[in-house]
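Discussion board: Methods & Data

I've been asked by a reviewer to show the raw model output for two of the constructs in my manuscript, not just the figures. I'm not sure how much to include, so I'm pasting the format here to get opinions. Each protein appears as its amino acid sequence followed by a line of discrete structure tokens. Is this the kind of thing reviewers expect to see in a supplement, or should I convert it first? Here is construct A:
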Amino acid sequence: MSDVPAGSIFVGPSGWSYRSWSESVFRGVRVKDRLAHIASLFNAVEVNGSFYRQIAPATYRAWRDGTPDDFRFAVKGHRFVTHYRRLASCGDSVARLRDQARGLGDKLAVVLWQLPAALPAELARLDDFLGVLAARWSGVRHAIEFRHRSWFTAEVQARLAAARVAVCLADAPDFPLWDAVTTDLVYVRLHGHTRKYASRYSRASVRRWAARARAWASEGRQVHIYLDNDAEGAAITDGLALSAELEVRPSVAPPQRGPTVRRSRAV
């Protein structure tokens, strides 16, 4: 379980193993050094690959050992739980990811569960899943990204608050953002405001998110913001701008040469 002080802010990209970054973000960086490069720029990262595949415990341990002591990871729950089982009868799968990600030790801060956009609200299904999390993986914080507006209700918010599970505030052009805070953990994903996974955020938008993050932190909440507009490298550009606004800095020295990214239109 991650021991993170109240009011801490974490900023980073959603994933880092993108082929399209080879000649921009990671130009001149060896494949085995890419996570270390990310840790020289940010104080956290969201593991996106865990949504698609099983990751060996040894890999998680290597990531833990290869990053600074104060670096933190968020891990995205496997799609078998969210998209195939749709939160039903998934206790064994949750436990499997728990056992794999245990290799991160106290660097694992949050587990994110991203629901399908076509999955409407069903309170009994949510209750069962929250019960699974409490029974099978209580040693870490959880957040849920709801992509269907029917979940955005007081009943759902109350259940999440009782379970100390956070709403993921997700900004994207094709599904709604639920602007709700249910716990002392705030989890934000910025997918690109006009072109999902691609478009940059304007300086004004970055400043607005920074102001919100500071306000949440001032209330004693732990804040995580991950940039998922990775298709053209904007996650790095915007993440660095947001980190600068928040004065969030990694504990290791940055590389001499900053990342080169192809700039898409800011929004």
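Construct B, same format:
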Amino acid sequence: MQAFLLPCRCGADISVTSSQAGGRATCPVCGGVEPVPRLRDLEKLRVVKTPPPSRRDSGAGRPWTGMHSLVLAGTLLAATAGLGSFSFTPPEAELFDEDTIRSSVMKAPIDEVYTAWATRLIYSSVERMPTELEAKSRARSDYYYNLRNSLRAAAGMGALVALTGVVGVLARGKANGR
């Protein structure tokens, strides 16, 4: 915003802007209050000559670099993949048909059934082919496990990329003396 120099009665100049037009300004030297001309009359005052801002003093800060892009991209990847991994939890094991299980047990040799019962079914070795429903449930569960683990790996990679970018930005800032 352009500033103008309003002369005070004490001889000092008061810096005013167009947003103060028609109001009052206080002199920083004597503390006197001077009326600020209306907007159309401000152009009759002297304009404040400001030196161009130096690179260090600019409000823009440091220029955007490739390392900043790494930080942004890595952070976005880590956040979206990490949050996405929580939404892909494997489905609970589906209840299977009791008759199918009963018939499988009836077909198994009696010593295997007894061994399974004796070990409280923890170490059951009753061999049978999975039903179509069991196979589909296992495939669905494996798919969700793999998807969730892939998203977690992508989140880890994103965090690593972001960390690399942060180290690069800090190293560049230290090299430039900032």
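Answer (T.O., handling editor elsewhere):
This is acceptable in a supplement if you add a one-line summary per construct. For B, something like: Residues 66-96+131-175 form one domain.
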